Amino acid sequence: MIGAGVVGSATALALARRGVAVALLEAEAEPGLAASGTNSGILHTGFDSPPGELETELILRARELRDPVLEGLGLPVLRCGAVMHPGDEGQRAAVAALAENAARNGVAVTLDGDGALAVPGESVSDPVAFTLGLAGAAQSHGAELRTAFEVVAVERDDEGGLAVSSSAGDRLSCRIAVNCAGLGAGDVARSAGDGSFEVYPRKGEFFVFDPPGGEPLERILLPVPTKRTKGVLVFPTVDGKVVAGPTAHDQEDPADWTVRPEAREEVLPKAIAMLPALEGAEPIASYAGLRPAGRGVNYVIGPSAVCEGLVNVAAIRSTGLTASLAIAERVCELAAGLGVELGPEQPLDPGPAPAAYGPWWRRTAEYRKGVS
User: Fold this and answer.
1) Closest CA to 301 of 180, 150, 152, 177
2) 181, 187 contact by CB (below 8 A)
């Protein structure tokens, strides 16, 4: 398993629970220090997802799988719901169309007389706790976590399997390799001769506030989305803060996690329009997440056409946290199709609680400052 973000960790757990020997390889010092750790933490219902797409299918399936895992791992979740208010007649029509879309996806919503859309099933978790919980449970079920293992090559070995090599010269043999490397997934695939897709970083910048007036934000505030982005939203965190963002800045450098000076003006006016109490408030923190967007592709999940035994799980955008458990289920099916023997699913063992890491929204930002 290449990559111990939320998707890689979920997949490692799913395979390990079925008796598969799993090595979970992570380039960073800990799981969840890249895209997964800077996710908003919102668990989406799929009310606005296009019907028929793989991403939508997996979001909806994950909703059926999630609650037993949240409970079994003791993961925090704020079941707050969300609301979207249209600003004009054009947006009112767009919101009404989203209500129809939600009905097609089987997601419960209500459309008020003023055109506002309420989505009671939307919720918020802690993306770091989610990732670390999955990785820890995977280890409890026998998976081996190897950090500081930056994969630079995947190739066929002399025994008919695969050899995975790290930048430090370590080498590991395996029957199949699952490429969940996030921003590095394209590089991993190309190292195996597979250039079928390309991943680039789409930066999302966020600003964290103390709740205005000390009053907690009761619901996620959603903007009316555009074709390119879901826009700037305002949402509560599980530790009582308020976050506004993200931006959607496409860039080429996968190592640039800085918050751009102009991001503040791109976010705050839109956030204040939805939550006027933020007027005059100063952020207590800011952070950037890099989403692994695909060039012309989305949710690339399947066996490589050129490297036998390599399964690509790539171009998983910001909904990766939401869909992770269903992606893991899908990869188990693919692994079985490649000849991996899956046993019956074992009861979930959460293992020991992860070490304290402070507020999730501060963890990756501070780590990135330390390594930049």
Assistant:
1) 180
2) yes
Instruction: Report the chain's C-alpha Rg in angstroms.
Output: 20
179, 3 Cβ separation under 8 angstroms: yes
Apex 304 CA angle, 302 and 309, nearest 5: 95
Whole-model pTM: value is 0.96
How much of the chain is helix, strand and coil, in % rounded to 5? 35, 20, 45
In tens, the pLDDT along 148-205 reads: 999 999 999 888 899 999 999 999 999 999 999 999 999 999 999 999 999 999 999 9
Helix axes 360-371, 127-140, angle to 10 degrees: 80
Secondary structure (3-state) at 351:
coil
The strand order across the sheet containing 300-303 reads 177-179, 310-314, 300-303
266 and 203 in contact (C-beta within 8 Å)?
Answer: no
- Spell out the domains of the chain, with CATH numbers in brackets: 6-371 (3.50.50.60)
With tokens 């490649």, the residue in question is 338
pLDDT value at 227 more than 80: no
Tell me the two tokens of residue 104: 């097609």
184, two tokens: 């590095």
d(CA 274, CA 87): 10
3-state secondary structure 120-177: CCCEEECHHHHHHHHHHHHHHCCCEEECCCCEEEEEECCCCCEEEEECCCCEEEECCE
Torsion angle of C-alpha atoms 131, 133, 138, 144, degrees rounded to 10: 70
Question: What contacts 150, CB < 8 A, 6 or more positions away?
Answer: 27, 166, 167, 168
